[in-house]
Amino acid sequence: MIWHITKRELYDNLISLRFALATFLLFGLMLTNAVVHLREHPERMQKYHDGVTAAQNELRTRTHLYDIGVQGPGSLYKKPSLLQFCAEGGDIFLTDSVYGGFLHWADGNLRGFWSTIYHYGNPDSKNIRPDTIKVDWGFVIGYVLSLIAILFTFDSISGDREHGTLRLTLANAIPRHTVLIGKFLGALISISVPFTLAVLANLLIISTSSDVQLNTDAWSRLAIIFCIAILYLCLFLALGLLVSSLVQRNAASLVILLLTWVVFVVFMPSTLASVTSGFSKPMGFYEYRQRLSKLHDQLKGEYWTRVQNMDALPTKKMELSGEFVMNDVAQRVRLGQEYVSQQHAQIQLMRSVTRISPVAIVQHLFESFAGTGFERHRHFVENVQHYEREYREFVLDMDRSDPDSPHIIGVREGMSQKPVNPESVPMFEDTLSLSHDFNAAAIDLFLLVLFLVVLLSGAYLAFVRIDV
Amino acid sequence: MLKTLIRRELLNNFMTFRFAAVLLITLLLVVANTVVLIQDYEQRLESYNDAVRTHYQELRAAKTYSTMAILVDRAPNPLSIFNVGLDKRLGNLVGIYHGFMPTLWNAEMHGTDNPFIAFFSSIDIVFVFEVILSLMGLIFAYDAIAGERERGTLRLVLAQPVRRVHILVAKYISAMACLLVPLILSLLFALLLLTRSIPLSTADFLRIAGIVFTSFAYLSLFYLIGLLISVATRRTGTALMLAMFVWGFLILVYPNLIRATVNPGGDIQARTKIVENRIQQILDEYERERQKFLEKEGIAGEASEFSKALGLHSYAFVHPVTLMSYVENISLISEIHPEFEKYVPSGKRYYDFVEPLAMRTVEKTWHIRKQALDEIYVRQAATDRVLLKLSPVGVYDSATQAWAGTDLEGVRDFFHAARRYRKAVIDYLYAKEAFSSREWFIADKAAVDWSTLPQFTFERSNVGTNAKRALPDLFLLLISNLVLFMAIVLIFIKSEV
Fold first, then answer.
1. How far apart are CA A384 and CA A72, in angstroms?
2. Which of A391, A36, A89 is CA-nearest to residue A209?
3. CA–CA distance, B8 with B226 (Å, rounded to integer)
4. What is the tens place of the pLDDT at every residue in A339-368?
5. B394 to chain A nearest CA, in Å?
6. What is the pTM of this model?
7. CB-CB: which of A90, A255, A283 is closest to B119?
């Protein structure tokens, strides 16, 4: 019986104008997405590979341990995701690298030791182009597909009631939930068919190109993303059915649905983000730099008074210099981490609050599985911090293993003079792992399912209780 | 007869559920967002005031002319609550120094500038209107004619001696009257909240009036689009679907799609590289002249001794992205060692020669740089804007930005003022004969008195300028209104009932 009703709904939908328009829109967007990805992705990969090679070559030229400590490993690059077309994740606002080869200061013979610089100010602050949302899967599904879902279901019950066909249907010996499920399936199938086809066309274009190779890991991620998209579609179908059975008239149902959609999908994320961004005041780049130079000057002042007060015993002076350099790098690393973690904490809070909006949930999920966006960036920064420790340990270890070295780190004369084999210097490699992403996505997935269950049971209750 | 028609339509519109729902949601969204935006504005204002205070203290702390650190700050625009534009995004703090030319590409940010915030799209009152007003216009219009046709009432009305144009005019007037209620009411609430916490000048009220008028034209445009669909279709169902997809396309899809499909113009890196090289040549020439002077003074041989005596740091470089050329000669000492006293006359002559030379060099590079910045960055942004204007949202957005003064031109006004101020500072330094003075690099005789330095002031451009910038877009909106209305009349007159 369910199949019967589903079939009727399907026939109704397939010949309707909205089906044609939705198919057209979905195909147009998905094809654009594929073409843009094919244009941009090779450039991105090229940039990444060039950057990594340049940094590694630069690192290979250093053989003196002191130079390795001062000049650092060159810039560290974030590996671009293969699936950037699924969720662009605001990557244009993020730096794709951290500055790794940077001389922080020089004073006489002393040089600041290397530490990473996470952001060099806000890259967006020089951008004068109008801001728009990138057309990725997240946009197509989050905004357009949800709108289509509403346009397909707003009249599914109230329309039948207006025409009087609902009374006819229910006059037969059909349980009400069967009717509801039939309608739900009908709408689901009639949207997911063009959607799936559009997705397949998109993937076909992307995978046939020689520039982009999707591996098995990428395909499994795509499968998960597709399932989430269908789940999200169901959410809006359930919402449509709920409102449609609560309201007597088509027009009223549409107005309520559209306004709900506009509030939850368009306004909620930005308004809530704006509210929560006011709760904390992370350090700005300007302030960060001010504090950095103040700390440095303070340490330098102490160092100079201690050096001048002392009778110039060369080794003692060298020890003081080494201590100064190492203290300086330690406080620089501390401040840098504080700066970044304050920013991350603010965004973390904003992201958790915006989860009230389903579109934010679905975009978080897409970002997690596509390996882009904020969580990914945080992961990258963690990788960098881990590498930074490893690198510094390496310098210390090399020095420790040389018995001829005076073991005064931070001064050229105080460190091991033995040439270092460039191959033995640890290299940075950015990694991505699926299990890490699952953990990050668990809450979002749970919330999405919860919303879906609530709306579905709401629609069921509303439909069972209505007067025809 | 027209009066009767209007009365009927008004009653029809006012007593509907959609009117109540739309009114409620508009009020809710506008008021909620206004509260949030005011809070945000106040925070930015506070950070601005802090910045001005600390920068003034920093300037006073400089004991010599060469170590002066003049920083000027851009105050947040109170009308950014209506359309934030570029006001919040672009830098709001720029240094004034005779050795470089301040532009928005060199500006930094005071206050917090978390780059990740850009993840979340910014919101303002115009954005609420962009989405809600267009939706409202279409919802009110889709069944205006198609509905009557379906119910058969159109035939009844036309059986009376009524001109068809009158029916359309009556529908238009009454629907607009109805749609203006949420617009005006929500704006009144917003203004009430605004004036309680932010003092607005008369000019600001005029600008807001401009924004309201533009909103009105935008709303009317979408009502007419809906009416066109309604006139052209037979059934309300079809009209509704068409209207919704048109809305989705114009508001949601088109503005984002067009940016994705249009390739940013050419290879930016290659173009900046060429200009960078040209600027570098000028800087090299500057460096040569500087060295020549040192030779002539007979201190080239002991240049390092001379530099050490003066604590001289001399840089000249060009930034590869922003093409900023920066020429600095700075003495990082405030007292001079007695044995170096012999270098003081040379130092005076050095600065007297090199600083005007640096200024001339910067002026020379500025001509090249200005053109390059316009060609590489500004033109690209302008192309984007033009493409966005194919959708009414783009026109509305840029017109309201122009009114609010948060568009690119408005922000650039600040940097014009900053450059003018640089000129004033240079004139002041010349008047004080600062370059050839001992206080330029040594503070032992007397620290520099900063109290007579001209103050930086920046007034937003006057309403006339705002209007001039907004007028083309407003005109475009009005013209499209007119064209649409004529199209509707033509179709309706020719259509069968």
1. 13
2. A36
3. 20
4. 889 988 998 999 999 999 999 999 999 988
5. 10
6. 0.90
7. A90
